[in-house]
Specification:
Blueprint lengths: L15 E4 L2 E4 L7 E9 L2 E10 L2
Antiparallel strand pairs: 1-2, 3-4
Length: 55
């Protein structure tokens, strides 16, 4: 089995997803309060949605 490695900056607050061996940083919500929703299909993350609310 081939092993792929990635380096992540642990001093930065972030969310990542791994799909088909590739590491992808998920976009941050704009300003205010936000959320990230990741959709899965057949055991794999297929896409994500980012939204935010300003109070």
């Amino acid at each position: 089995m081939q092993q792929n490695k990635a380096t992540v900056d642990l001093s930065e607050d972030a969310v990542y997803r791994v799909c088909e061996g590739k590491l992808e940083k998920v976009d941050k919500p704009g300003k205010g309060f936000g959320k990230q929703v990741i959709t899965w299909q057949n055991g794999k993350p297929t896409h994500y949605e980012v939204s935010y609310t300003v109070k």
